[in-house]
Amino acid sequence: MRGMDPVSAVWKCKRTLNLGSEKKLKEFVNFIHSSVNEIIQAKKRKLEKDGANDLLLRFLGARLDDEMVRDMVISFLMAGRDTTSAALTLLFWLLSGQPDIEKQVVDEAFSINSGEKSLNFNDLKEMKYIKACLCESMRLYPPVVWDSKHAAKKTLS
């Protein structure tokens, strides 16, 4: 909404006075921070218990402060959002043009879980055909294209 204001002073005043869209933004940011902080605290307890190892636990093991870890987690979540939606959209688009393959995907999903319970990570690991379809979809249409950046000019001597 900040871009919709005619001048930047409008949203800055709203932020200072805690009004309107800036008030909502602050509430949402606080909610996200609180939720991610809960995840971090749970992981810390798990690290103390069994020494498990995943990306978040590696950040925590590096003795980074909680705020930095929280911001990294949010960045990973936000970065994954667009790429995941792009990958799944293209997979479904490709499947819509291949009814026989779509049927095999559905059959595999129902053979592993007939809908009686929520899917869990172990169920997903068993879905070999679906994984192959997703990998092929991403090979044909990568959700993140290679985007190389180069300096326009040398800044250090």
From TrEMBL:
Pfam families assigned = p450
How far does the signal peptide extend, from start to end residue? none
The family database entries (Gene3D superfamilies) matched by this protein are listed as: Cytochrome P450
Q: Does the keyword field hold Transport? A: no
* Alphabetical keyword list: Iron, Metal-binding, Oxidoreductase
Q: Which GO terms describe its molecular function?
A: metal ion binding; oxidoreductase activity
Source organism, top-level taxon: Eukaryota
Q: What is this protein called?
A: Cytochrome
Q: What is the source species? A: Forsythia ovata
